[in-house]
Amino acid sequence: MQSLIEQVESVARKAGLRVEEPRGVAPPPGMEWVRDIIAEGPGIRVVVRVAGSERDRRLVLIMPIGFSEVHMRLIQGLPLEERMALLARLLREVIHVCPYCRVGVGGAPTTPQGIIAEIHYVDGVPDSQRLLDDITRLISVFMAVNTVLWERFPGTMPGHEKPQLYT
Questions:
Q1: What is the DSSP letter of 64?
Q2: Contact between residue 97 and residue 146 where contact means Cβ atoms under 8 Å apart
Q3: Domain presence at residue 98
Q4: What is the H or E stretch that residue 104 is in?
Q5: Are 86 and 137 spatial neighbours (Cβ–Cβ below 8 Å)?
Q6: CA distances from 129 to 135, 136, 137, 143, 166 (A)
Q7: Which residue of 12, 38, 92, 123 lies most exposed, with the fewest beta carbons within 10 A?
Q8: How far apart are CA 89 and CA 35, in angstroms?
Q9: Domain count, the chain
């Protein structure tokens, strides 16, 4: 019987994803190992972190999205009501894309530093298709968060030095 880590790595690699052991990253509490599943395309690299416990047959997919320094500075410059509305929109988008994700805000609600979304499995690795669907779902969470930030702050889109002006 394959271990959880072998199952996850096998499914990810068969789908054309890279799997790496992150340097200097300890497994979350209660977990024994951690790996990064990396999806790359032209101009984009998204990392889904996976942690597991062979002993308890538990697995968690994690999408930590840290806001850039530029985004944090721009968010802090908003009036409190707009900051809270933006955070609510970000959380709503994440929950829309992944209704069964556990979602949290890094930092204080009035000074967010990022968003984290997690999918937990309590009885080992789900079937291959479900695992790939959930990895894809977390990549979509990453895209949704960045889309909201780029819509709110168009000048922060890659390749744009100044805010776009539409006339």
A1: E
A2: no
A3: yes
A4: strand 102-108
A5: no
A6: 10, 10, 12, 21, 42
A7: 123
A8: 30
A9: 1
Kindly report the CA angle at 41 between 36 and 47, in degrees rounded to 5? Answer: 20
Using only the alpha carbons of the chain, give its radius of gyration. 17
Whether residue 165 is predicted with pLDDT greater than 70 in this model: the reply is no
pLDDT tens digit sequence for 144-162: 999 999 999 987 766 554 4
How many Cα atoms within 13 Å fall on the side-chain side of residue 133? 10
- Would residue 164 count as lying in a domain? no
CATH of the domain at 113: 3.30.1460.10
Determine the straight-line distance between the first and last CA of the chain, rounded to whole angstroms.
62
Task: Tell me the H-state helices in the chain.
Answer: 4-14, 69-76, 80-97, 128-152
Give residue 163's pLDDT: 41
| Residue 145 · residue 46 · CB < 8 Å | no
* Domain enclosing residue 128, as ranges: 4-156
